[in-house]
Write a structure and sequence with these properties.
By secondary structure, the chain is mainly beta. Helix content is about 0%, strand content about 55%. The strands form 2 sheets. Strands 1, 2, 5, 8, 9, 10 and 12 form a 7-stranded mixed beta sheet that branches. Strands 3, 4, 6, 7 and 11 form a 5-stranded antiparallel beta sheet that branches. The mean pLDDT is about 85.
């Protein structure tokens, strides 16, 4: 049975910020807790860099069971907030990715991320999945 002190079960799952070197990758994961399923409604991301990205930062998401969230890697620069740290920080863009249909992820699932930095700069990346915790019997 799902129990929460947060109204309507609003919740955010996020990967810890990842420092990714030039043309390198990172493979963090998120474990969905056992107390409830998670309905993801928005995907947020931020990229901190020392220059405007001239190449894609690619994101692939999958469940540990192997199910992919997309058929190809998605360029995070299309929806991430990009913060350029040159002569003080300045934001370039940033719109959350609103899922057309909310995605239900079962309790005890693991979400794997593969992030590939195609830019000429070291970047710091964080991805957040925003949505609701719901009773897994619902």
């Amino acid at each position: 049975m799902y129990k929460s002190i947060i109204q309507d079960g609003m919740f955010t799952y996020a990967i810890t910020p990842q420092t990714i070197l030039t043309t390198a990758g990172s493979t963090p994961s998120i474990n969905i807790s056992s107390d409830s399923d998670f309905i993801c409604t928005h995907l947020y991301a931020s990229i901190l860099t020392n220059g405007i990205p001239e190449a894609p930062v690619l994101l692939t998401m999958s469940l540990a069971s192997g199910e992919l969230f997309s058929n190809v890697a998605i360029d995070m620069c299309s929806f991430a907030k990009i913060i350029v740290d040159v002569a003080g920080q300045q934001e370039i863009s940033g719109n959350p990715y609103l899922l057309i249909q909310p995605m239900r992820i079962p309790a005890n699932s693991q979400i794997n991320f593969a992030i590939q930095n195609g830019t000429a700069n070291t970047i710091i990346v964080q991805v957040q999945m925003v949505g609701y915790k719901v009773d897994s019997n619902f």
